[in-house]
Amino acid sequence: MSDLIKISGIAGFGYHGVFKEEQKNGQNFFVDVELSANLQKLNDKLENTINYATIAELVKAEIETNPVQLIETLAERIADKILHNESKITRVVVTVHKPDAPVGVKVSDISVSIDKSR
After folding, report:
1. How far is it, in rounded angstroms, from Cα 44 to Cα 112?
2. Whether the model pTM is above 0.90
């Protein structure tokens, strides 16, 4: 049995990108995570579930440190870190949004999703 926790729109300012301008000036990134875990019989105790604040802080830290060129790499790094740090999670889907990606045409968003399981 697998249940799902979703955290949407975790915001951070990072310097990820292929172009020098992105690496110098930075931009806003937003991340959504879907966490699969067995949430049955929690007895209404925080220590028996996933601490959303801890996950959100981890994601924000990854957005704001160690710049990479591709949001694919950022998404994979976040997924790996979540699985490494939270043993209750059996599967994670990480979506990184880069709404200001310099693609030459007006878009409302560019995003990449990575899906990883144990």
Report:
1. 34
2. yes
